[in-house]
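Try this one yourself first.
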């Protein structure tokens, strides 16, 4: 399924020029108006030029303005989760998370999830690369797959990522996780692993980001609104994608005996 117009623009936002951001912000804030505008009217209302609007649309994957408007109109007419206006911090966070997961579900490419799970099932080594706030997701993923019997490890140190990655080979798999997709360390580590022969998978919200371009296969999570700062942006989308991959792998495995062994082993860690 194609990504929603607004999701693509949100994912591209941080890589846009200042002029392109003005046009993108206007589209995100007033999509219902934009579908009735000519490109000249959109440029005028956004305070930018037609050339800038064309550049933005090309970055979003559109060769023409009419196709962009048609996709935007379809998006606006599709059923969506109704977000309530609220100033309550708990309601606001709940709405934000539900909206994020809804967007991922609507745009989900199930064939890609199936392909990733098949690749992981055949992997010799399974490595998860990330830095900063994305690392807890990578670490949790490594524990999940290690419990299934995979040789799974998570690395947060960029130097270790490069050292380990340079020694990988065909049959090894690296999953690089970066919410923005523009973190140089994660990009470079994925590139080194790919050049060594490993199959590389990216999980990011950054549409056409450096990470999305360097990996063999990219899975997109949900981008945040442009006004969200790095410190308030959530990582629930990346967590959801990991859960989808994990459960897809589990569904293709016969793990009854393995689960029994793990359950018995974990008993020694508990009192009672």
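Now uncover the answer:
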């Amino acid at each position: 399924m194609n990504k929603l117009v607004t999701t693509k623009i949100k994912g591209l936002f941080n890589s846009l020029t200042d002029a392109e951001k003005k046009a993108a912000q206007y589209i995100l804030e007033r999509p219902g108006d934009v579908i009735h505008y000519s490109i000249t009217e959109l440029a005028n209302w956004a305070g930018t030029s037609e050339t800038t609007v064309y550049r933005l649309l090309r970055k979003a994957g559109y060769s023409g303005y009419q196709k962009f408007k048609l996709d935007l109109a379809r998006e606006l007419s599709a059923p969506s989760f109704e977000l309530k206006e609220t100033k309550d911090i708990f309601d606001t966070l709940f709405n934000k998370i539900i909206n994020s997961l809804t967007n991922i579900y609507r745009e989900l490419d199930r064939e890609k999830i199936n392909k990733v799970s098949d690749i992981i099932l055949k992997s010799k080594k399974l490595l998860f690369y990330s830095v900063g706030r994305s690392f807890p997701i990578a670490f949790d993923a490594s524990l999940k797959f290690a419990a299934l019997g995979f040789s799974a490890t998570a690395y947060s140190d960029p130097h270790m990522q490069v050292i380990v990655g340079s020694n990988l080979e065909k049959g090894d798999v690296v999953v690089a996780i970066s919410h923005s997709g523009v973190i140089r360390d994660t990009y470079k580590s994925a590139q080194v692993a790919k050049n060594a022969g490993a199959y590389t998978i990216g999980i990011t919200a950054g549409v056409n980001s450096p990470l999305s371009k360097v990996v063999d296969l990219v899975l997109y999570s949900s981008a945040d609104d442009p006004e969200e700062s790095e410190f308030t942006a959530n990582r629930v989308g990346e967590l959801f994608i990991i859960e989808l991959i994990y459960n897809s792998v589990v569904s293709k495995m016969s793990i009854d005996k393995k689960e029994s062994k793990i359950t018995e082993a974990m008993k020694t860690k508990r009192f009672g």
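Discussion: The chain has a mean pLDDT of 87. The radius of gyration is 21 Å.
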